[in-house]
Write a structure and sequence with these properties.
Two copies of one chain form a homodimer. The first copy, chain A, is of the alpha+beta class. Chain A has a single domain, classed as 3-Layer(aba) Sandwich (oxygen-dependent coproporphyrinogen oxidase), CATH 3.40.1500. Helices cover 41% and strands 22% of the residues of chain A. The first copy, chain A, is built from eleven helices and ten strands. A seven-stranded antiparallel sheet of chain A has the order 1-2-3-4-5-6-9. In chain A, a hairpin with a 4-residue loop joins strand 2 and strand 3. The N terminus of chain A is likely disordered. At the A-B interface, helix 8, helix 9 and strand 10 of A face helix 8, helix 9, helix 10 and strand 10 of B. Strand 10 of chain A pairs antiparallel with strand 10 of chain B, so a sheet runs across the interface.
């Protein structure tokens, strides 16, 4: 499994990397391997053009095609969310001297969403072979089997582009949503892959919403492979698992990584279709619940679930951890954290309550569509 | 450096450990290596007696002496805080079948403190030699140099007792405080050590408070060794460092680990004196500020600093990470998290503001007492 990009930024070429924008000054790290980043005020589309020229590959290459496709989807989803919220996204574009950068769109303090962010990144660099093996053991194994590397001490050149998103609504009846789609390429012949997923994290369970969300992604999956939905649904349940709590972070969706078992164009189309679906699959659920009545206790439960979100992202999310330790653009990496969160000592849910119901679903992932084989 | 105990619990003998109380039933983990813990309703002092009988060593041993000393200090500090707050601590005692347990005292939702917790743990177990080397490389090196182990694949038997504490006050002008004192012993001859520290995490800087806190600990240190304060002050600044932010968590205090360069009794006395000092050094600062006026913006700044506290504890605190991954009593480990926290995208402090002032001190640790040698 690989980085939840936004974080591709994290694959900085060196531990003392410093970031700068394309046409302003550069500040260096204050101490140790900390990184200070600077946002550019340059127009985002100029930045994207620079990024593509610098590391996007030739016309018609998958590098360029994917980055351009992700940028279009970034605009589409933020337009939809902005229309539903009534507030605009702010946009920060950034580049770094050694290759690549990104465009981050954030809606902080909206009417409907307390925090919504969609981050595009387009990055090139090198990484030690050891890091590659940790990041994607399966791909590293493929490379070794094909005799593509003799030295485990060498450096791998890579290109990564990804679009990652987290949206936290205000109303506790409206779910948080996360997605992430990415394309990764190395300089080893044939060693490339797609990864991604979309998942839903409600604080209260409205079964019809969860079924609709899963149903929408099953339809997208089925267009490509009837095995995709069952496989990727289970993968999401396994990946978004908070081990120390014995709970999943939310109610899942789909998650996949290291996908390269068919033509790149087909996988590109699959990723694009998944991204097209996120608007219709998610926004109506939030619109439906944005004005639901709720109590202080229900708000507190949402805040505690936000606390779990923080725990997952800081303790388990590979991309976040790698990004934080290796030095990426912190504000783009931690954009995923909620505006507010809560921890109560030894909190117990009341038996038979709505909180107990959804907690059971976090502890025992359900087959929302009744289509998985029983074990 | 070693575990911030409470977490000694985390040194569970196996990854599928399950916890139980002394005289009730045991529930096993739901799946993977998750642990469900059960609090006992048994009287805490009975539990302590059981713990000491089970793993505390004979009368007069340092194991027993330290555990008993820490328990007395737990009662003393919680009494003091309770008197200042007006609310009582609740107490949970727990044991685990394979040896050890603890007594956790928490004041959730007090008048002055939003969350205050003091956790005692007394644990025995075995750990792989590799874990020992990671936990305390210096001690592992000492052991190897003394020919105490020939096999790097063997298991080390250990005993650990510690008292850890975090207190988060409501008023943003009143500082958070953390301390942790612990004693660790292995079955390798002469391989034991003391560790600990007390540190202050304010959201707003009142220089006289910080000087008083550091001054109190300098006095305790000076009783034992004039080198202690300069050395342990710097160690705290290095340890409580949030690398990805380029900031310390708070304004420090003292921190030390792997201390075994003098008689155990002297180090025990030092730890006890540090614990005696925490009441007079901390509680008056909170009492002084508990009714200070503050604005919504100031409360939000406090909440953002709480967010940094969460980041440190979940990303860097070795004890927390080890505890979460290995499976300890989650509620005792995460007792350290604040009740509420906040993350704002790309937040910037205003130049010349009080927030900018303390942020500067987080980025460039200061010599509060003017006693450190300049580099």
């Amino acid at each position: 499994m690989l980085v939840s990009v936004g974080l591709a930024a994290a694959f900085a070429p060196s531990r003392t990397a410093s970031f700068a924008n394309g046409n302003h000054m550069m500040r260096s790290a204050t101490r140790m391997s900390t990184v200070e980043s600077i946002d550019t005020s340059a127009a985002a589309d100029d930045v994207l053009e620079d990024l593509l020229a610098g590391c996007g590959g030739p016309e018609g290459s998958m590098r360029r095609k994917m980055a351009e496709g992700l940028r279009k989807k970034q605009l589409a989803i933020t337009d939809l969310v902005s229309a539903a919220d009534g507030e605009m996204f702010q946009e920060d574009a950034w580049t770094r001297p050694k290759g690549g950068g990104g465009i981050t769109r954030v809606l902080p303090g909206g009417n409907v969403w307390e925090k919504a962010g969609v981050a595009l990144s387009v990055v090139t660099g090198t990484m030690p072979y050891q890091t590659f093996m940790t990041a994607n053991p399966a791909a590293a194994k493929r490379a070794a089997e094909n005799g593509l590397t003799n030295s485990e001490n060498g450096e791998i050149e890579y290109f990564a582009t990804g679009l990652s998103c987290v949206m936290h609504p205000r109303n506790p009846m409206a779910p948080t949503m996360h997605f992430n789609y990415r394309y990764f390429e190395t300089d080893l012949d044939g060693i490339w892959w797609f990864g991604g997923g979309s998942d839903l994290t409600p604080s209260y369970l409205f079964e019809e919403d969860v079924q609709a969300f899963h149903g929408a992604y099953k339809s997208v999956c089925d267009k490509y492979d009837p095995e995709f939905y069952p496989r990727f649904k289970k993968w999401a349940d396994e990946y978004f698992y908070i081990k120390h709590r014995g709970e999943t972070r939310g109610l899942g969706g789909i998650f996949f990584d290291d996908l390269n078992d068919r033509e790149p164009d087909e996988l590109y189309n699959f990723a694009m279709d998944c991204l097209t679906e996120i608007g219709p699959a998610y926004v109506p659920i939030v619109v439906k619940h944005k004005d639901d009545e709720f109590t202080t206790k229900q708000k507190e439960w949402q805040q505690m679930r936000r606390g779990r979100y923080v725990e997952f992202n800081l303790v388990y999310d590979r991309g976040t951890i790698f990004g934080l330790k290796a030095g990426g653009r912190i504000e783009s990496i931690l954009m995923s954290l909620p505006e507010t969160a809560r921890w109560e000592y030894n909190h117990k849910v009341e038996e038979g309550s709505a909180e107990a119901d959804i907690l059971d679903a976090f502890k025992n992932p359900r087959d929302w569509l009744g289509v998985l084989e029983s074990a």
